[in-house]
Amino acid sequence: MNLYTSGSMVRSSAAFVNTAGVPTNPTTITFKYRAGAGSVNTIVGPTNDGPGAYHYDIDTTGWAGPDTQLVTCQWQGTGAVVAIDDDYFGVTAPAL
User: How does pLDDT run across 62-74, given as a tens digit for each residue?
Assistant: First the structure.
């Protein structure tokens, strides 16, 4: 698991392919993330970087610790490409 200091912008990315393995955009793409025990944030229409490639930048500002905060991410495509994948990273408090 990657660790980032609170205040960093952290990029979560996803790559979707069709059944032939060709990069393809799903008809609908949904990105969800949750920091710690907080509420789930749902992003419809994250940034498309090309066929099948997407990203969303998460602002980690505000975590003061004391422990590492787990951020859970989920990418889901429906329609032309049906797929789901998850991603995780940790956020630590700034040193000062």
Answer: 999 999 999 999 9
